[in-house]
Amino acid sequence: MIRFGLGAVAKAGHTAVEAILAARNAAGPFKSLWDFLCRVDLRVVNKSVIENLISAGAFDTLCPNRRSLMEGLPDLLSAAQKKCSDGNQCSLFEMMTDPENDTGPDLPDVEDYTQQERLEHEMEATGLYISGHPFEEHEKRIQALTSCSISDLGRWSCKNRAPLFGGMVLSITDRMTKNGNAMGIVKIEDGKSRVEVVCFPKIWETLRGRIGPGTVCLVQGLPEEREELSVIAKEIYLPEDIERGRLAPFVRVSLFADSMKDRPFKELLRALKTYPGKASVLLELKDDTDSVVLMLDNVRVNPDAPIESALGELLPESAFQIQ
To answer: What is the mean pLDDT of residues 43-56?
Structure first.
């Protein structure tokens, strides 16, 4: 369960939140959207507030179909305003007369929003994705093409090779250099972490107009630690670049360091080279507390080949994992 303060929902100011709390404290938890509309002060908790509460998921436990709530709101709101007295707020006596049978107008029977639509509405209402992240549907495909995650950028130690990471564009800020040339600052996130990517004019002139919020991309660039971590972009790959196969996938081999202590490292390299191909190999050596990831130079494998079989002849199956 995610707990999110009502005051953080757009347009739900202090007065509206206090009115909602007062109605709930007076007669207990709300049973439906109709019950909510009949009990809160609709002069304060207006239609815009309610729409944003629906978008944020505030009524999900009462009715999980947000589209039905949103499309049914105008009729329910009109009926509630006609029903209620005392300044658009139902009297406690009227509410207690027959609360079980007073269900109000029926909600429309419509298909709910798609996950992508729900997430977009959450972002508009709260500035955050709450029930997931739109990058999730791309994550597996993009991860196979990356050498690093955003969260691991701060631990990248190879200055001669820029990491390649993926994510979704959150925002773009246009800037100008001292020479008056256009450049851009692109904020990218992957649902777990986010980072600012600095695009100097040479790169920005090829991207401007082709990239925007929601664009899935891959970034190659070196991380820099100033006031906070940022990345100086060397290359940014857009969806069309990915679809055209401009990038070869990585194969990640994760194994316990102890499993190799009695075997020469060249045996591992020989086993990996059993199935040559175009994919670079990222080797993660780990113990119970820490791990290090190495990119193996001069080792390219076929990601679709049974690499597990080759390693299985060298190591116990429990000692390694391939992604």
So the answer is: 94
Helices (H), 144-282: 201-207, 239-243, 265-272
* Cα 154 to Cα 69: distance, rounded to the nearest angstrom: 44
pLDDT digits (tens, 9 = 90+) for 71-128: 999 999 999 888 775 444 554 444 444 445 567 788 999 999 998 899 989 989 998 8
Using CB atoms within 10 Å of the CB of residue 16, give its burial: 0 to 12 exposed, 13 to 18 middle, 19+ buried.
buried
**Cα-Cα-Cα-Cα dihedral sign, residues 182, 183, 185, 189:** positive
Q: Which two tokens stand for residue 182?
A: 């256009």
pLDDT of the residue at 39:
92
State the Cα–Cα distance between residues 84 and 91, nearest whole angstrom.
Answer: 7
| Closest residue by Cα to residue 163 from 216, 220, 241, 231 | 220
Instruction: Kindly write down the DSSP assignment for every residue of 122-152, as one continuous string.
Output: HHHHHSS--S--TTHHHHHHHHTT-S--GGG
Domains of the chain (ranges, CATH numbers): 6-126 (no CATH), 136-243 (2.40.50.140), 250-322 (no CATH)
pLDDT recorded at residue 97: 45
Host H or E run for residue 170: strand 164-176
Q: How far apart are CA 323 and CA 319, in angstroms?
A: 14
Q: How confident is the model at residue 133 (pLDDT cuts 50, 70, 90)?
A: confident
C-alpha–C-alpha distance, residues 74 and 86, integer Å = 21
Q: Which residue has the tokens 């040559």?
A: 276
Distance from C-alpha of 103 to C-alpha of 9, rounded to nearest angstrom: 27
